[in-house]
Amino acid sequence: MGLKKMGFFLKLLVLVLMSGMLVCSVQGDAHYYDFVLKKSNFTRLCSTKSMLTVNESFPGPVIRIHRGDTVYVNVQNEGDYGVTIHWHGVEQTRNPWSDGPEYITQCSIQPRTNFTYEVILGKDQEGTLWWHAHSNWTRATVHGAIVVLPAEGTTYPYPKPDAEDVIVLASWYKGDVNLLVQEALLQNSTSSTPVSDAYTINGQPGDFAACSNGTTYRLLVDYGKTYLLRIVNAIMNSETFFAISGHNLTVVGTDGTYTKPFVTSFIMIAPGQTMDVLVTMDQAPSYYYIAARQFVSENPEVPDFDDSNVTAIIQYRGNYTPPAAPSFPANLPAYHQLEVAYSFLSQFRSLASPEHPVNVPLDITTRMYITVAMNSVVYEDEGTTGTYIASSLNNISFLNPEMDVLQAYYRHVAGVYTTDFPDHPSYYFNFTGYDMPSDVTMQATKVKVLNYNESVEIIFQGTNLQYTPEDHPLHLHGYTFYVIGSGYGVFDNETDPQGFNLVDPPERNTVTVPQNGWVALRFVANNPGVWLWHCHLDRHLTWGMDTVFIVKDGGTPETSILPPPAYMPPCQDPSPIVLEDFSDSVKAW
């Protein structure tokens, strides 16, 4: 071979190797985790119980990766009932097979079996996400954080913190929460679901809970340093106020995206949401309480909520006399301060920078107006008429099918769902008023089908049906979306769009629909698959406040759902924690 020809092949070889290196750098590294689900004993609030956790840890293990990496998690179920795991906020690009919600993308992993999830992040996802069980109410004890660091060779869009810590807020029930919920659904058709006995910070209820002040979570800090706190709200049914005594918080990210930094004395975080905050330890060395309590958006006359305060302790290192007790954050809002909570939410903006651009869709091809409501199913049973509590989106209370929707869609199995989820409510009235009509609610498995690359705008409208207005934190699987506006009362299609933020709206995967108000969002349907929309208050999800979006393939292999894995968990007996099927009954209110 001549020298010229040899030189040509050497150059070609170098180019091939470099291209391979580039591909590797784009795809990132692969990480492997083993999650073992099993029951272990935990003692809280003066009593011990056995509960299901991952790797005998509450909260569960932290998954720590870099932007662009892929994660493989082998879940081995050594418990005594079926479980699925959802990777909350992870876009799972073209890969709904590993998204996790039971009856939607898979059936549960049965005891003494395993299933391996492939967790694929979106190319721009960076910050804090989380994972949790997505079957029954098992996520109360099966959950943990996902930390997505900047890609190798890059850094944060703010000064790099000196250290960081993960803060997981969760619910604690003295009994087996799945049994408690099952009993509540069976005993009384109009009863609520169980209220937690306490909240926890990193697994501990804190100093104000019974038998707990010796185990309160402590964060040791150094004076003058700045810490990044990655906060996850894994609580089952409560939006939460959070503050640190004597210290301001600088919010820099939420739901795996960056935000324009803003300083606040507290945050309000909904179930399903994550928030990244910077805290500079600039106070006199001492002990300071981290504290959180429920933000109650329901009528103040409703007494049935967990009014406990959960605490952890910021403890400065150094030589000083410890206080008799840590100072409590005086700036922590009271339970029912709606305007304070909504004012906090209004401060979020995307970075909208060259490194973190905003791409709000402008030419909308699909518009939806979805009412979010509490309802009662009216049914007949052997000549007896009764009512059963329910919840709905556009008057549809979702029924879980016996076969998961993804399998039915991919395998073209008829009779599992229908594709007529409505774009609008059946009729219009003053949704937030007090003169309520008889609003017909249907129990059904209805889905919305979107073509690939459609530009979607959704207005979620809160309602006063059943005279029980409250916030609804709604979560979309497989996507993030831009929150372009929100307001009080009934959405006005002529005047309210004039205030839409199309320049730097926040990007979220979980958004709060305010009590008797509305929220507007937009996204491009460019992730083919089967994706769940649902309220992240688990009691509302149990009662049917969810639906499914099916995004069709785009016509090329690169815009189509990935092939299914060789093994998917088979469908077994349905869960006992589900609203009874009254779809063949007479009517619903």
From TrEMBL:
One of its GO terms (cellular component) is apoplast. Its main location: secreted. It is an enzyme of class 1 (oxidoreductase). Gene3D superfamilies: Cupredoxins - blue copper proteins (2.60.40.420). GO terms for molecular function: copper ion binding; hydroquinone:oxygen oxidoreductase activity. Keywords: Apoplast, Copper, Glycoprotein, Lignin degradation, Metal-binding, Oxidoreductase, Repeat, Secreted, Signal. It catalyses: 4 hydroquinone + O2 = 4 benzosemiquinone + 2 H2O. Residues 38-151, 166-319, 429-553 form the Plastocyanin-like domain. The keyword Secreted applies. Residues 1-28 form the signal peptide. One of its GO terms (biological process) is lignin catabolic process. It holds the Pfam family Cu-oxidase_3. It is found in: Secreted, Extracellular space, Apoplast. Binds 4 Cu cations per monomer. Its EC number is 1.10.3.2. Its cofactor is Cu cation. NCBIfam families: laccase. Belongs to the multicopper oxidase family. Lignin degradation and detoxification of lignin-derived products. This is Laccase.
